[in-house]
Amino acid sequence: MRTPLLAAALLLSGLCPLQAQTTYKMKPVAIQSRWAKEVSPQNALTAYPRPQLERSNWQNLNGLWEYAITATDEAAPYNFDGQILVPYPLESALSGVKKTLLPEQRLWYRRKIEIKQNAGERTLLHFGAVDWQSKVYLNGKEVGGHTGGYTSFTIDITNAVKNGENILVLKIYDPSDRGIGPSGKQVLNPANIYYTPSSGIWQTVWLEKVPTDYISGLNFTPDIDKQQLNLTVSAPAGYTVEAIASANGKPAGKVKGKSGAPLQLKLENPVLWSPGNPFLYDLSVKLLKGNTVADEVKSYFGMRKVSIAKDEKGVDRIFLNNKPYFNLGTLDQGFWPDGLYTAPTDEALAFDIKAIKAMGFNTIRKHIKVEPDRWYYWADKLGMLVWQDMVSPNHSLPEGAKAAFEQQCKETLAQLHNYPSVTTWVLFNEKWGQFDQQRLTEWIKRSDPSRLVNGHSGEYLYVNEKLRSPSPNAYVSADLTDVHSYPNPMNAIKMPGKARVLGEFGGIGVFIADHQWNTNTAWGYIQEKPGALKSKYAVMNQHLQLLERQGLSASIYTQPFDVEGEQNGLLTYDREVVKIPFAEIRKIHAPLNKDMGAIPAVAAQDADLTEPTAIYSAMLQEYIDGKKDPEFLRKLAMLAVQAGDKDGAALAGADYFAVMKQPYSEDDLRYVMQVTGSTRDTGFSIIRDNMEAIDKAMGARQSAVKMMNLIYQDLIAPAVPENGANPDWGAIYTAVKPYGAPGEEIYLRARTIYLLNKQDKAGFKTVAKEYLDKYGQFVKLDEKKKIEAFMN
């Protein structure tokens, strides 16, 4: 028998056998995009992953790898759990695995690579992004690693490579929202505005052969006023570099100089880049030793300028290319039902930008996520301004979180610097983990003076015209003042030298039957029927026109696509249904976007404007008249949930559950989770009896959280009076005790929060201590701090 230590050594060195290839199959998912069916191990994101530093000699490593999940303290596994399709994250359906990685676990990857190493060349191993912390081994030797889930990293593996077969292994730690690193909208218990995590490899992995001395990076900044591109080529000292720009295949400019030195590539009457005319120059860069070309890369650039200046009326506004330019934008989260953080295909990645442009927007606020390089390439090529959010730190700022956030910001600034589409950096959002705002804002401005800095989007936040977060020192050192206002738009405060922007507004929730991730929720700041959305949205945009006349420079609507529990998108999460036809929404946007340019052709069906309750009522009558086939019952129960008919959902659900056969499929268990709305429903007992299978299919603690919510709804909330009188906690405990750990956990949680709100310190300590002792691992850090502070 092999010891764990020996097994680890065999694994890392490649002496143990790799599992044979198996048939790949995407895991079931509530809804999926049209591109998911195109994904296979042979064509998993095959496009060149780094368009601004391109070579021909590369090898795509996407495809089937082996994976294993172990406990934190376990050695590397000898036998792996199965296969995973890289680069789709572990929790995604497209990975073929769809499992949740817990903070106390580690994720391992392994695959064979055939490499032929030639004299005079080096082999580079590139990772687009791996969430969150990785160690990389080749043939048993640790060759590098990276901390940070959103930016790329490269490892020179030349000295560890063998000619022929090589064994590549990764070890991943990703605690999601329970760690110190930026995790964006990913949480282990997704709900409302927070979503399913994406652990491990989620962008392309690839090999590249380069000369011994090679071009490792390009840094360029356009200067339209001087009609030049400021360029620096990172390469070993002592070389000459030559950069040649071309436009539509014709020479447009040329410069020679030293590697590492600032160069100025002059352009005569440059064509300026804008959303209406996204003109890109091609760029060829050579590394020269005398007349010998040591290395050559291909790239591209756009000539544009973004600034704050006064218009003809003396109002501070956002300018593009020295002219006022209203940034009409939308808040894009970058999630997919089938791939989560990873778009199924490159066409899918481009579709999102095409659809947003086809709706008549000229700006995307990329929200709390950094996309793959090809997303920004498509934004450059199609013509879209990008406000790039920094990925916010852990909101509770545990020790180490600030340093992790600043390192991720530094890498983001460097990685995205060359893309002309990126015009604005957004530092903080709605006080999520806010710290040292002035210092960090000024640091970003020094690091990149060519772009605007939005130091805090939503530092002022209004919901239903009530200010939630006043700030005494708002927008210090920033270029913009930014307000969030839900649902209706309003203007930001006026400050000298700063443009006023509306960083978020809208959030109109509209659910579309058969196109929902979760039929139990249709979250939005307000709810509307499909038929009422267009007029409501049009009125909001008319108010934007009025605000623009009063000095507003930009607006960001929430949001272009539904995302999991949020159904406030203009398109459904699967990108199949547009809730306002493209031509009609472009007409609404036209007064504020006069630079639309060519409109991409995109396919999506228009929403059915029939009253959803009317559809449900007709189906309910069919049920009464005797229609009982399984698919009909499934849909009827889901529509009943959406229509708010709990009794109807329970009836149809119970009839469907009666024809379900054990062992239940993942699809069946997901359905049970969706339509069960009470502890009295038949589905509740199915959830209770299948918790492990549900969590395996849907993620950690999904069954327990569902049960706790229903127990609270049915048994605790009705017994806790709103007038502050003392509830009978003994009777409540008796009622919830039969439900085991979920019943006890929600009881202790509810009682702890109740006593905390009442500031009843005497009774609080004992209950809170028991709650934290038993279930503290599931309590968010900021909430735990509040509880512990009151205990002390």
TrEMBL record:
- Keywords recorded for this protein, A-Z: Glycosidase, Hydrolase, Signal
Limits of the Glycoside hydrolase family 2 catalytic domain: 347-458
Question: Which residues are in the Glycoside hydrolase family 2 immunoglobulin-like beta-sandwich domain?
Answer: 214-304
Q: Does the keyword Hydrolase apply?
A: yes
Q: Which Pfam families match?
A: Glyco_hydro_2, Glyco_hydro_2_C, Glyco_hydro_2_N
Molecular function terms from GO? hydrolase activity, hydrolyzing O-glycosyl compounds
Residue intervals of the Glycosyl hydrolases family 2 sugar binding domain: 106-209
Q: Which residues cross the membrane?
A: none
Could you say which residues form the signal peptide?
1-20
Coiled coil (residue ranges): none
InterPro entries given in the database record: Beta-gal/glucu_dom_sf, Galactose-bd-like_sf, GH, GH2_Domain-Containing, Glyco_hydro_2_cat, Glyco_hydro_2_N, Ig-like_fold, Ig-like_GH2
Give the family per the record. Answer: Belongs to the glycosyl hydrolase 2 family.
- Protein name per Swiss-Prot or TrEMBL: Glycosyl hydrolases family 2, TIM barrel domain
Taxonomy of the source species: Bacteria, Pseudomonadati, Bacteroidota, Chitinophagia, Chitinophagales
